[in-house]
Design brief:
Blueprint: E1 13-18, E2 22-25, E3 40-42, E4 50-54, E5 63-69, E6 75-82, E7 88-91, E8 99-100, E9 111-117, E10 121-126, E11 129-135
Antiparallel strand pairs: 1-3, 1-5, 2-4, 4-9, 5-6, 6-7, 7-8, 9-10, 10-11
Length: 149
């Protein structure tokens, strides 16, 4: 099942490219609304954290790709979660390769990933455990994303 919790006012968009996952925003409701993979969803990551729910097994080779666009549909970045035996991430235009998470992911197969765009860093929680605190200044030199230095 895939879904988005759309209780918040939503503006710039995200596009889920690959993987079966659910999408939502952090809210007081546990409701998730169906989404269609490959269809842009209006969403304002600067105003509200994004939550992605996955049930991929480590080592499955499955990939979650969430692409981010401005309100005029300019592609600005993507976040990739790669379910190899050692889970990895990549941030489009910021990291040049897939990188192992340095913090162990929770053991549960069902995971809720919370992505927060702060002023200085992109933070990813997995089941409420911080697994990435990516400082924008760590970006690839000359990276073209608005997130990277």
């Amino acid at each position: 099942s895939s879904g988005i919790n759309a209780e918040w006012p939503l503006r710039p968009g995200i596009l889920v490219v690959l993987a079966a996952c659910s999408i939502g925003v952090e809210s007081q409701s546990d409701a998730w609304t169906d989404v269609t993979l490959g269809v842009m969803i209006p969403y304002d990551l600067e105003a509200h954290p994004l939550q992605i729910r996955t049930d991929s097994e480590l080592g499955s080779g499955e990939l979650v790709s969430v692409e981010f666009y401005t309100s005029d549909e300019t592609h600005i970045t993507a976040i990739y979660l790669y379910f190899t035996s050692t889970p990895q991430y990549k941030i489009g235009f910021c990291t040049s390769t897939y990188t192992n998470f340095t913090t162990a992911l929770p053991d549960e197969q069902d995971k809720v990933w919370t992505i927060t765009k702060g002023d200085a860093a992109l933070t990813i929680l997995c089941n409420d455990v911080e697994v990435l605190n990516y400082l924008y200044t760590d970006g690839v030199s000359g990276g073209s994303s608005a997130l990277c230095a």
